Amino acid sequence: MLILDSEEKSIADTIKRLKEEAGSHSPSVFTLTNELPALKIKVDACFLSNPYATDFFIKYLEDDVIKNNKLRDILEFYPSQNKVIAGTLSKNLNIPTENILWVMVP
C-alpha cells in the first residue's frame, strides 16, 4: 500500500476533485496548473500535441501579425464571413470551398 504524506494527499485529493468536476474527460492542463501551481507539467498526455506546429504558429504570429502591427486589427474588427474564410482556406489547403464548413460558437 502506498502511503502519501499530507502534501501528496492534498494534491491527490485536488486531482480527484478536478477529475470528478471535469466529467467524462480529464481536467485540462490550464485547470490543473491554476488549481495546483506547484505542479510542473511537462507533457499533456491527454491531448495530441505538436510542438512544431506551436513553434510555427508563434513564428507566423510574430512575423506576420505582431511585427506588421496587425494584431489590433485582428482582435478588434469583426471577422470575415464564412464564405470569405472558406475561400482563403480553400486556396491554402487545396480543398474545394464547398467542402469547408466554418462554425463560430459564441
Write structural notes for this entry.
The protein has five helices and no strands. It is mainly α and 106 residues long. The termini are far apart.
Oligomer class: single chain
Mean pLDDT: 84
Per DSSP, what share of the residues sits in E-state strands of 2 or more residues? under 5%
Number of strands: 0
Sheet having the most strands: none
Overall form: elongated
Q: What is the N-to-C order of secondary-structure elements (H for helix, E for strand)? A: HHHHH
Give the end-to-end Cα distance, rounded to a whole number of Å.
Answer: 48 Å
Helical region count? 5
Helix content: 40-55%
Flag low-confidence runs: none
| Derived structural class | mainly alpha
Please give a handful of descriptors for the protein shown.
106 residues; 5 helices
Task: Outline the secondary-structure elements.
Layout: H1 6-22, H2 29-35, H3 51-66, H4 71-76, H5 82-93
Task: Tell me briefly what this model is.
With 106 residues, the protein is mainly alpha-helical. The protein is built from five helices and no strands. The model has no long low-confidence stretch (mean pLDDT 84).
